Amino acid sequence: MWLLGLPWALALLVTAASSGPSADPPDPASIFADLSPAELRAVRTFLMERPELGLSPSRGGPLAKNSLFLVELLPPKKRSALRFLERGGARPRREARAVIFFGAQAEPNVTELAVGPLPRPSSYRPLAFKGGRTVPFWARPMTRLEYELLHEALVAAMAPLEPLLREATGFGFQNCSERCLTFSDIAPRGLGPGERRTWLVIQRFVEGFFLHPVGLEVLLDHRDPDPRRWAVRQLWYNGRYFGGVRELAESHARGALPLARLPEPPARHLFSSYEPRGRFSSGTPTEVHGAKVCEPQGRRYRLRGNRLEYGGWSLAFRLRSSAGLQLFDVRFGGERVAYELSVQEAVAFYGGHSPAAMQTKYMDAGWAMGASSYELARGVDCPETAAFLDAHHLLDADGPVRFPRALCVFELPTGVPLRRHFDSDFQGGFHFYAGLEGRALVLRTTSTVYNYDYIWDFLLYPNGVLETKVHATGYIHATFYTPEGRRYGSRVHSHLLGNIHTHLVHYKVDLDVAGSGNSFETMDIRFENISNPWSAGARVVQPRGTRTGVGQELPAPRLTPPLTCRRYHLAVTRRHENEPSSSSIYTQNNPWDPPVTFESFIRDNETIEDQDLVAWVTVGFLHVPHAEDIPNTATPGNAVGFFLRPFNFFSEDPSVASRAPVIVRPLDPPACSRLQIQRWTPASPGPCVHPEPFSYNGTYRQV
């Protein structure tokens, strides 16, 4: 048994000529590998050449067009994958998932297609959501084109407010090349289905602009595909609501408007920057390099394509453009323990006094958090010794875009022994000491979803434990300070309110423990008060474990409330191919009636005894921002995750296979003047210096 340890517990088929078969990649893990740039280009070219689709380039043109938004791997069905992996069956057909915005038709919509076979696609078919649910056009994710048009509309609408903005902030929108204003947009984009009206937080465009709101928030309606019909519906300035731009401008012209005057930002040492300022009181040096990770005898892991091996571990991985890291075929000691382990969604719910703050409920899959995997800095984001891998995404672009160093793999000293014991003789000596160094292999990527940075880790330990962890850092989502706002957070700077919010992260864990037929049980620890069997009249109070089998999907009330997936700490369902994910890229802009609803996974209350099961895990934390979140939220105390741990699965701790322990025994007890030291690694690790200087590029370009 393996335990989850929770820290808080269109039917159309089109065929074209194919130019012939290609050689299969040698490693079985490649069936789960992300699409290569050549495959991404091949899918786009094939679809763009289909006249019935009428696709236009993503860049430029009107919103009311048919365009290709996303291309990523469509993973094989589990049955086909296992037939190939376990029984030498045929390699599964390699396909792509393509998301198309059909805006140039009488009833605009978003349609998903399966395209294949790769690497030379010749056909496509529609992909359906469970229950035949469809995606309306207004629920589509935002695109760069829509943001450009949104900015143009905002600049035009704000022209009457330029005197106000220049007087209060020293910055503006009109004819701007420097000292400009910008905006952050809030979601959901409305209060009900069919809406696409967004609150925009106006900010000074300086380094760390997320922390520089100017006190103006604008509600802009942009549902109509024609931007000429977009309009500002409402404004909020310095605690007051206004029905239109003219009303606010006239109030200012009459002198009846209390201005929120902002001080001039300094040329250096801006509070939202990373520039050092101040000194530590101890005077200990910080101008020199600190401790580093090194590999004195080379790497102790093997990385081949998307196959990762370390100790007893072997797994395949990919980085989905839509939702991020996904592991497949996770094995320990050659035996599969999980078919899939993946990030599903990251949610942040905010409170506040301003309209933008109270409306903010971010669902980051809707912002394609997997494609927000920007370059990792060697020596900062990952150790200098790490292996770095590029990622390629085709998202809202006219070709694949290369994201260099988007993932890293490294072995990490944990700083605490995996296990150790000092066996005292209680006479000033010892019988033996033994210890095994603590090490873990880390697979890491990040998602920078505008202001916030998520650091995603999977950690593999030599004793068969797998840990998932996410750290939250980056800039807080902050709004303009008003006295009424203090009920919803903290005043973190003179004109800045850090808004209270909750982070929730959802994972899919498709466990296959000794096969795909699994059951689910809980263990409750309760205290019992019983008569002492060896002393009459005495009582014994002691803990007792009670195992309870769970036979149906719908959790008992004592376990979790029957709300959305993000309200369950743990829910277990029978696995179905039409339930691949608990969320989607459309939930953010249509949270009221999304095409994927987790409740439908458990509402039928299927039996889950001796079935192929999926555990859905939610972790999270409450964040009350404070002054120390300036300039950025720090990672300590802002990390959550869970563990997969073997529970009577092995006959002993599998880390005994490691050759890294140290055993010390005295040869002349109790004097202990002569010692026998046993170790299976070189006595000295040797020099531990990484010779390459720091380098960073930071660009991501179409290839």
TrEMBL record:
Class of enzymatic activity (EC top level): oxidoreductase
Cofactor section: Cu cation
PTM (free text): Topaquinone (TPQ) is generated by copper-dependent autoxidation of a specific tyrosyl residue.
Copper amine oxidase N3-terminal domain: residues covered: 140-240
Family: Belongs to the copper/topaquinone oxidase family.
Domain of life: Eukaryota
2',4',5'-topaquinone carried by residues: 452
Protein name: Amine oxidase
Domain Copper amine oxidase catalytic positions: 292-534, 567-655
GO biological-process terms attached to the record: amine metabolic process; response to antibiotic
Catalytic residue list: 364, 452
Molecular-function GO term, any one: quinone binding
Cofactor binding summary note: Contains 1 topaquinone per subunit.
One Pfam family from the record: Cu_amine_oxidN2
Record domain Copper amine oxidase N2-terminal: where: 39-123
Entry EC no(s): 1.4.3.-
Signal sequence residues: 1-19
A single GO cellular-component term on record: plasma membrane
Annotated keywords: Copper, Metal-binding, Oxidoreductase, Signal, TPQ
